[in-house]
Write a structure and sequence with these properties.
The chain is about 45% helix and about 0% strand. The protein has a single domain, classed as Lysozyme. The chain is built from four helices and no strands.
Length: about 120
């Protein structure tokens, strides 16, 4: 459970200075990069993965998970009026992943849970 407590602290930490905020942001980005590397290994542009398997972005969201956790409309998901995947920043993708973690826990990434 150390993983959960470390990430929860990162997400919940209220930074009081821009230096602290940058450190929290960098740590969270690095952790989500590990998720992305595990879920999207072997793909050239890992944050924007779309291999046709029904999962999208680096954290490999289903459309239901993406939308259920605040993700906007995505062209590649077939959403009417959707933006191309590259229209979403990495920071935005991470924010959806953080909400997914809070709603589903680490098992939202069952293939990589043991490595994180």
């Amino acid at each position: 459970m150390r993983k959960l407590s470390v990430l929860s602290a990162i997400i919940a930490l209220g930074a009081t200075s821009s230096a602290q905020a940058e450190k929290v942001s960098t740590t969270a980005h690095n952790w989500w990069s590990m998720v992305r590397n595990c879920e999207s290994r072997g793909v050239r542009d890992m944050w924007y993965t779309n291999t046709g398997n029904g999962f999208y972005f680096g954290p490999q969201f289903t459309p239901q998970t993406w939308h259920g956790n605040g993700g906007g409309p995505v062209l590649e998901m077939g959403d009417k009026g959707g933006r191309p995947m590259h229209g979403y920043s990495i920071r935005y993708i991470i924010s959806v992943a953080e909400r997914t973690l809070r709603s589903q826990g680490f098992m939202a990434w069952p293939n990589c849970y043991g490595y994180l």
